[in-house]
Amino acid sequence: MSPDYSFKGWVGLSNDCIEKQNLLFSDIEPKTFTEDDVDIRITHCGICGTDVHTLTNGWGSTTYPVVVGHEIVGTAVKVGKNVQGVKIGDRVGCKVDNEPHCDGMVGTYNGKYPDGSKSSGGYADYTRVPSHFVFKIPDALPSEVAAPMLCGGVTMFSPLKRNGCGPGNTVGIIGIGGLGHFGILFAKALGADKVTAISRKSNKAADALAMGADTYLATDDDPNWASGHANTLDLIVSTVNSPKLPIDSYLQLLRPHGTFVQVGAPEDKIPGFNVVPLIVKAVNITGSLIGSPKEIKEMLELAAQKGVKSWVNSWPLGKVNDALQAFERGEPRYRIVLVNEKHVGK
User: Fold this and answer.
1) What's 8-151+309-339's CATH class?
2) N or C: more exposed end of the chain, with fewer CB within 10 A?
């Protein structure tokens, strides 16, 4: 039996679709339904930097037409017979597992399933996804709070948790934007002794301290910031996506055996840096890419328990072109969430 709903979404057709504000609302061909799939009626979807990189083909891997959005919250409206743990009517989220580390991965969007059908994201009315990407949202978390956690949140939670953030640790978060604000929130929720927010300018100091940061370091205001704060941090998570990363200076901030994690993804190559600190202080440099549904569930439970709230600006889904322009101008404080108003409350 055919469903009584149709798949429509905001489609990007070319790499200038944000600049020209011409994402078009049109029909989407969903993946072929199997008994392992779930159809989700979308109520909320966060705007993520990956969406922008994909729409503009900044990473060189976009196949147009494309419907982006992977911070999806909605209601399960069709559930395959083989699906466990999710039933029709459940409020759910959707996120890929460790597939990004695998050859032939199929992302939430801009991917191709083995049968040739294409994956499409959450700037839409409905989406169809394999059930192992689907999980329930805790009742304590409003949908607009939970949605941006499903990429932005777990992108920070995962490296913090995997690298020992907790009591006894000092943590630095570089870049106080959509990702960085989650870094502060979750570093505090995980119990870090001290959280230092690091940014070039001082204009976000009040926000960072309100989020829970203990100190704020504005690097443009202090030419000796690296030497003056040397050997003070056990863990640094960098969200910066500019290729002009002063890695030499960041490594000075680490204590011996500390770890620097890069999660921001510049479109260009970063400059070379001095490897002596790697040897002298035995520090580690690594990267991290989102997180698994298991980590998302743990993160959401922690957020519900500790009262962690995303800082969001809500926009109607129908104004997605305007919302993307605002995102590009750096206006959100600190995540934009698209609200599909016709589905809210259903």
Assistant:
1) alpha beta
2) N
Superfamily of domain 152-287: NAD(P)-binding Rossmann-like Domain (3.40.50.720)
CA gap 129, 34 in Å, rounded: 10
Continuous segment of H or E residues that includes residue 248: helix 247-253
d(CA 188, CA 215): 12
Q: What pLDDT is attached to residue 1?
A: 56
pLDDT digits (tens, 9 = 90+) for 290-302: 888 889 999 999 9
Which tokens sit at 120? 């499409």
DSSP letters, 72-95, are: EEEEEEEE-TT--S--TT-EEEE-
Q: Which of 311, 303, 312, 334 lies closest to 141 in space, CA to CA?
A: 303
pTM for the model = 0.95
- Is there a contact between 45 and 88 (Cβ–Cβ < 8 Å)? no
Residue tagged 């059930």 (tokens): 131
